Every structure is written in structure tokens, then in C-alpha cells.
Inverse folding.
């Protein structure tokens, strides 16, 4: 019994220094829901249907996008969640991390609205099928990897801000930090997530591959230094899709 208690105390102590584990559980649940086929669809839905079907298809796509954002983009902001948790006083630690995560996801949902509407507009304007648009999106993503703007956004991933301890100023500080981090992530990963707006959240192979790519470049020094390698991989993927692979 003493050994069990000691083991539990040690685990609890480690979790206190990693408060972001609760948000990591949320990420795991999002992946589980996607794997179970929650709200699955094969891509941007309903562009040849009637207006009501359009609306229903868009709402379903946006719900799927939100789940996809939690699965793909929240993992790269876990260090920031940890910063919020460790720099908040204990009585408001859970609230601060929840507020940060909600604001961060909300910014990405806003981007999703724009991305999904853009996909519909491109379908209508260019009269291209999903494969052709996906090839174009992969080429754009590969080019974006090589730009200075992309490099600046990736290198800014470690920036943090001091957070007020209590009251409304603490909430506002936490929300501002979330907006800043989310905007930096959007600037860095908009092209990759644009690919997912075309592929759809039911495309788990695309999700897994792009999540790994985003995690490597956002969370590792080697990934941040080798953006050209990611560009090459995206170019190869574009060629494979174009050839029908």
C-alpha cells in the first residue's frame, strides 16, 4: 500500500508540473472521434445540391473542421498551454488553460469558415474537381514552406508573454496570448490546413501525415531548420495526387 501511495504521489507531482495533460486528453478524444467516423464526409460537401443542403453540408463541414483543428493544431500549442497553467495561480489554473484553448480553437474555426467558403468558391469559379484543387493546394503549401514569412512564423513559436495573476486583467491577458499564438500558427500553417479543407476531416491518412509534418516543424529545432525538406515532401505528394496515386 505504501508503494502504491508513493507511486501515486510521484505521478501527481509530475502532473502538477505538466498541467497541459488535460488538454492533451482532449486532443486524444478528438482523434478517437475522428477515427470512429464522427461526422465523416469525403471532402467539401454539397456544392451541387440545393441551398438548404448547402447550409447543412457547410455546418457539418465546419463541425468536422473544428474537431480536426483540436486533433491537429492543439498539440502544437501544448507548450503554450503549459506556460499558461504554470504561470497562473492554482485556483484559476484550470480556467486559464480552458480559456486559452477555447480562444485558440475559435481563431482556427474562424479561419476554417474562410477556408471552406473559399473551397466552394473555387469549385464554382474554376470548375475543377477535388483532385485538381488538391494538387494546386499542395503546390501552394510547398511554395509557402520556402517563404520568409513562413520561417518567421515558425521561429516565433517559443514567444510567451507575462500573464496577470488575477481578475479580468488575467483573463484578458490569457485571451490575448491565445489570439497571438493562434494567429502565429495560422500564418505558419494556413497552407497546410488549406490542404485539409480540400481533403476533408474524414481523410485520416492526410490528417496523420500533415499532423506529423506540423508537429515536427513547430515543436522541434530540426524541423524549424529544414522547412525545405517539408516543401519537397509536399511537392512529391502533389505529383502523386496528380498521377492518381
Amino acid at each position: 500500500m505504501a508503494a502504491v501511495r508513493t507511486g501515486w504521489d510521484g505521478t501527481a507531482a509530475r502532473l502538477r508540473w505538466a498541467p497541459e495533460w488535460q488538454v492533451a486528453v482532449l486532443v486524444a478524444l478528438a482523434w478517437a472521434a475522428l477515427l470512429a467516423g464522427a461526422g465523416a464526409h469525403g471532402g467539401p460537401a454539397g456544392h451541387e445540391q440545393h441551398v438548404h443542403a448547402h447550409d447543412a453540408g457547410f455546418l457539418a463541414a465546419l463541425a468536422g473542421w473544428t474537431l480536426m483543428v483540436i486533433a491537429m493544431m492543439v498539440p502544437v500549442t501544448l507548450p503554450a498551454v503549459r506556460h499558461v497553467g504554470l504561470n497562473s495561480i492554482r485556483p484559476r489554473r484550470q480556467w486559464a488553460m480552458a480559456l486559452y484553448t477555447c480562444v485558440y480553437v475559435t481563431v482556427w474555426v474562424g479561419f476554417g469558415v474562410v477556408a471552406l467558403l473559399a473551397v466552394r468558391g473555387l469549385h464554382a469559379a474554376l470548375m475543377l474537381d477535388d483532385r485538381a484543387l488538391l494538387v494546386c493546394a499542395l503546390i501552394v503549401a510547398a511554395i509557402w514552406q520556402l517563404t520568409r514569412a513562413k520561417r518567421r512564423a515558425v521561429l516565433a513559436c517559443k514567444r510567451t508573454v507575462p500573464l496577470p495573476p488575477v481578475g479580468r486583467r488575467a483573463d484578458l491577458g490569457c485571451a490575448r496570448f491565445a489570439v497571438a499564438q493562434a494567429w502565429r500558427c495560422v500564418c505558419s500553417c494556413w497552407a497546410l490546413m488549406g490542404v485539409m479543407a480540400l481533403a476533408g476531416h474524414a481523410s485520416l491518412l492526410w490528417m496523420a501525415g500533415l499532423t506529423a509534418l506540423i508537429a515536427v516543424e513547430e515543436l522541434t529545432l530540426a524541423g524549424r531548420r529544414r522547412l525545405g525538406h517539408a516543401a519537397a515532401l509536399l511537392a512529391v505528394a502533389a505529383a502523386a495526387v496528380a498521377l492518381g496515386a
